[in-house]
Amino acid sequence: MRSLLCLMTLTLMAGVGMESRVFAQDAAQVDNKRAASSANDEGERLRKRGTAESLRKAVVKYEEALSLWRSGKDQAGEAETLTSAAQVYNSLGDKQRALDYFQLAVSLWKSLGDEKGQAKAISGVVEVYYALGDHRQALEYLNQALFLQQSLKDPGGEATTLKDIGVIHFALGDPQKALQYYQQALPMLRAAGDRGGEASALNNIGAAFRVMGEPQLALAYYKQALALQRAVGASRGTALMLTNIGALYYRLGDAQQALDYYDQALPLRREAGDRAGQAITLTNMGAAHISLGDPQRALEYLGQALSLAQGGQSHPEEAQALTVLAAASSTLGNKQQAIEYLHRALALWRAIGERQGESSALIRMGRVYREQGSPRLALKYLEEALQLARDSGDTGSEAVALADLARVEHDLGDLDRALNRIETALDLVETLRARIRVADLRVSFLASRYSDYEFYIDLLMRLHERQPSAGYDALAFEASERARGRNLLEVISAARADIRQGVDPPSLERQRSLQRQINAKERLRMQLAGGNQIEKSAEVERELRALLAEYQEAQAQMLIHSPRYAALTDPAPLKLKEIQRRSLDRDTLLLEYALGEERSFLWAVTPTSLRAYTLPRRAEIEAAALRAYGRMTRSNQRRYRVSSEKAAAELSRMTLGPVAAELAQKRLVIVSDGALQYVPFGALPNPDAAGAGAARRRPLIVDHEVVSLPSASVLATMRREMGERRPATRTVAVFSDPVFQPDDPRVKRAGLNGGKTNGDESKAESDLVRSAGETGLTSFERLIHTRKEAEAIVALTPPEQGFKALDFAASRATVMNAGLDQYRIVHFATHGLLNSRRPELSGIVLSLVDEEGRSQEGFLRAHEIYNLKLNAELVVLSACSTALGKEIKGEGLAGLTRGFMYAGTPRVIASLWNVRDEATAELMKRLYRNMLTGKLSPAVAIREAQVSMWREPRWAAPYYWAGFTLQGEWK
User: Fold this and answer.
1) What is the fold, at CATH topology level, of the domain defined by 727-968?
2) Cα–Cα distances in Å, from 811 out to 312, 438, 584, 770, 848?
3) In sequence order, what are the beta bridge partners of 592?
4) CA distance 360 to 401
C-alpha cells in the first residue's frame, strides 16, 4: 500500500511536470504564430509597395514567416505565406521557385480542404506555367480552378479563370476560341465590380481582334482597357496596355506613335520591378527603331531586353528579343549572326508552344536565307510560317508570309506561282486595310506594305516581257493605280455625302475641342522649337502626336456612327478601260510613273492605247530629280543657270526620253512618284535629242499644258462627285497682306500698352519666326506685293462678284465665316507653313494680331481646311511651298493641296518652292487676266502666264514661274 501510494505520488508529480512542459510548448507556439504573422504582414506591406527593392525585402520576411509557421506546424499559415511568397518570386523573375511554392501551397490547401485557398494557389501555378510557355499544363490547372470556383459559387473567381483559359487558347493559336472565353468573362467581371479584371478582359479581347485582322476593333478595346486600368491605378497593368497599343500602332505602320506609347510604359514597368514586362517593351522599342531606319539604336534596346529576359528565366520574352535581334543584325548586314539568333529563338518558341512567335521567327528566317541566296531553304521556312499563320488565324502574318514566298518563287523562276502568291497577299492587305477606320492609320498601314505593290508591278512587267500580248502591262498599270492615292480617293467620295449630318452634337463638339487643343499645343511647340528646352520640346511633341491620334480616332468614330457614311462604299481604283473612257480625251496623254528598287516604269496612256517603258532604278531617278529641283530653286542666280539647264535636261532624257515621240502637242497629265513629285515637269526641256540646241532648251510648257494628279482614278472620282453640284454664284474671294507682327505700322500705336508688345504678342511673333525653319523662309516680313496682287485680281471682277480681305480682315476668323462656298475661286496670298512630319499641321498664315496689336489665332491648319465647305472650281495658294507636304509611300505628298481637294475643289494651283513676292504677284496678275478677261480655263491660263514670263529675259529663269503647278482637273 505504501509502495503503491509512493508510485501514485511519483506519477502525480510526473504529471505536474509534463503539464508545465505542455504549457511552455503552447506558449512557444503562440509566440511563433505571432512572430510568423508579424513577419508575413511585413512581407505583405512590402509587396504592396511594388518596387524591385521592396519585393526583395518582402521575400526575406516571407521566408522568415515560413520557417516560423513550419516550426509551429501551422499548415494554414504556411499555405498562405507560400502563396504570397510565390507571387513575389514570380514578379522577381524566379519562375522555378515560384512554381515550387505555388504547388506546395496547392497541396497544403487541398489537405486542409480549403477550396478557396486552393483556387488562389492554382491561379499562381497557371501564371508561372504560362510565363514558362507550358500552356498545356497551364490549361490543365485552369480547368481544376474553374471546377473549384463553380463549386464555391464564386462568380468573380470563375470569370477570372474563364479569362485566363482564353489567354491560353490565344497562346495556343486559337484567337477565336479565346475570344469566346473573354466574352463570357467580361459581363461577370463587371457584375462582380472587378474593374482590374474587366480592364484585363477588354485588353485580351483587343488582342484577339488584332490577330483576327480587326485592327480598328482591337484599338477600341485597347483604349477602353487603358482608361479603366488608369482609373484603377495599377501601374503594371497600365504598362501592359500601353505596350499593346504601341504594338498595334507599329503593326499599322506608325512606328513613331508606337514609340510614344512604349516611352510611357517603360518607366512604369521599371518602377514595378517587372523584368519580363521591361524585356517586352524594350524589344518592341527595338523593332520600332528598325522600322524608323535606325537598327544600330535598336541593338541597344534589344541588348537590354535580352539580358532582362535571360536573367529572369522569361522564355517567351527571350524568344521575342532574339527574333527582333535577328532583324536588326540582318539589316546591318550580319546575316550569319541573324540566323544564329533565329535558331535559338525557334527552339524557344517551339518549346513554349507559342505558334504566333514561331511563325514570326520562321518568316524572318526565310527572309534572311533569301537575302543570303539560299531560296530553297527560304521556301522551306516560309511554307512552315504560312501554315502556322493560317492555323492560328493570323491574317497579317499570313499576308507577310505570302508576299515573301512570292519573292522566293520569283527568284526560283516560277513567275506564275509568284503571281498567285502576291495577289493573294495583296487581297489580304486590302481586307485588313478596309477594316481600319482611322484615316491616318489606313495610310500608314498601306505605306508599310507598299513594297509588296512595287514587287507586284515589277513581276507583272516581267511577265509582260515574256508575253507582250497577254495584257500584263495593263495589269501593272492597274496595280500602280491600286497602290496610290487611296485615302484621297476615299475622302473625296465621302466629302460630298456631308457625313456630319446626323452625328450627335457631343461628337462634333469633341472634335472642335480637340482642334483647339491641337492648335494651342502646336503654337507651344513652335515657341519651344527655337530654344534650348529640348526635354520640354520633346514632351510637347509627344502630347501633340497623342492629340492628333485622338482627333483621328474621333473622326473615325464619327464616321462609324454617321448614317450617311454607313451608306457609302469605299471606291475602288479604276481599271484601265474606265480611266481611258472617263479621265482622258484625244488631246491628253497620261504619263504615270512607278519607281522601283531595281528598275522603274512609265506608262503612256491615251483613250485608245497603253505603252509601257522601263526606266532606271529609283535611286538614279530620284538623284537626278533632286539635282534638277535644287538647281531650279536657285537658278535666279546667274551662276546656277547652266547647271540648272544641264540638270533639267538630264532628268528629261531619263524620264521623258522613251516617250518623246508620243508627246506631240498634247496635254501632259503627270502622275509622278517619289522625288519626281517635287519637279515641275513643265520646266523640263523637250527630251527629243534630235531637235536644235535652242529647241532642246525650250521648256515643255511652251508646247504643252502640264497638269499633276495623285492618280488617274482620283480625277474620275472628282468628276463624278463634283460634276452635279450647283456652280458658285460669285467669282473670287481673296485673302491677302495679313498683319503678322505687333510692330507692323498698321497696328494702332495708341492701343494696348502705349504701343508696346505684351507677352502674348511676343509669342505670336516668335511662333511665326520659329516656323520659318522648315518652310525654308528666311524671314516673315510683310509681303507688300500681295496687296497689289489682290487689288489687281478684284479689279478684274464685276461689282459684287469679288470679295477682298486685306490687313486685319485677312484673318482665320474671316476665312471660317466668309461663306466661301459662294465663290468659284478662292485665293490666298500670304506665307505658307510646311510641316513635313505632321502634314495636318501645315497651314496658311493669316493675321496673327488684331488692330490693337493683341495676339490672335492666325494659322489655318490643314486639318481645319479639311472641314471647310467649299464650292470652288479653283483654289490658288499664292504662298511658298504650298504644293509640298509629307511624302507617304503610295499616297504622295500629303499637305494643303489634298486638304482643299477634300474640302470641295477639283483643282488647286500651289507652289513647289519659295518664290519672290514680286515674281509671284506678276504671275498671278497674268493668270487672273487670262482667266477672268480671256475666259481661259485655269490649266490654259497658268500655262499662258508662265510662257509669257519665260519669254521675258527678266523672268526667264524657271525659278520665277515654274514653281506653281496645277493639280487636279484641267477642263
Assistant:
1) Rossmann fold (3.40.50)
2) 60, 31, 40, 20, 8
3) 603, 671
4) 9
- Name residues whose C-beta falls within 8 Å of residue 356's C-beta, 6 or more positions apart in sequence: 173, 211, 388, 392, 394, 397
Q: Which is nearest to 836 in space by CA: 785, 896, 784, 769?
A: 896
Residue 721, CA distances (Å) to 499, 714, 754, 776, 871 in order: 14, 10, 54, 36, 12
Model confidence pLDDT, tens digit, residues 463-476 = 999 999 999 999 99
CB neighbours (10 Å) of residue 525? 22
Task: For residue 670, list its beta bridge partners.
Answer: 591, 708
CA-only gyration radius of the chain, Å: 35
Query: Do 935 and 676 contact (CB within 8 A), yes or no?
Result: no
CA distance between the termini of the chain: 138
Assigned architecture for domain 576-712: 2-Layer Sandwich (3.30)
What are the residues whose beta carbons fall under 8 Å from the beta carbon of 155, sequence distance 6 or more?
188, 191, 192
Q: Which residue's C-alpha cell is 469566346?
A: 180
Report the distance separating Cα 968 and Cα 898, nearest Å: 10
Number of residues in the chain: 971
Rounded-to-integer distance, Cα 394 and Cα 387, Å: 10
Q: What is the mean pLDDT of residues 866-884?
A: 79
Tens of pLDDT, residue by residue over 342-371, are: 999 999 998 887 888 999 999 999 999 999
What is the arithmetic mean of pLDDT over 755-762?
38
pLDDT of residue 546: 79
Residue indicated by cell numbers 481582334? 209
C-alpha of 298 from chain center: 19
Rounded-to-integer distance, Cα 166 and Cα 205, Å: 9
- Mutual orientation of helices 439-448 and 415-434 as an angle, nearest 10°? 160
* Backbone dihedral angles phi then psi of residue 749, each to the nearest 5 degrees: -70, -25
Q: Binning pLDDT at 50, 70 and 90, where does residue 780 land?
A: low
Answer yes or no: are the C-beta atoms of 207 and 170 closer than 8 Å: yes
Looking up cell 515573301 gives 404
Give the DSSP H or E segment for 734. Answer: strand 730-738
Q: Give the CATH number of domain 2-132.
A: 1.25.40.10
The set of long-range contacts for 160-166, using a CB threshold of 8 Å and a minimum separation of 24, is 160/123, 160/185, 160/189, 160/194, 160/197, 161/123, 162/188, 163/189, 163/197, 163/200, 163/201, 163/204, 164/123, 164/126, 165/139, 166/204, 166/208
15-19, 415-419, 739-743: least confidently modelled range? 15-19
**Cα separation, 121 vs 79, whole angstroms:** 9
- How do the domains of the chain map onto residue ranges? 2-132, 505-566, 576-712, 727-968
Q: What is the DSSP letter of 931?
A: I
pTM: 0.78
Q: Is 893 helix (H, G, I), strand (E, B) or coil?
A: strand
635-659 mean pLDDT: 81
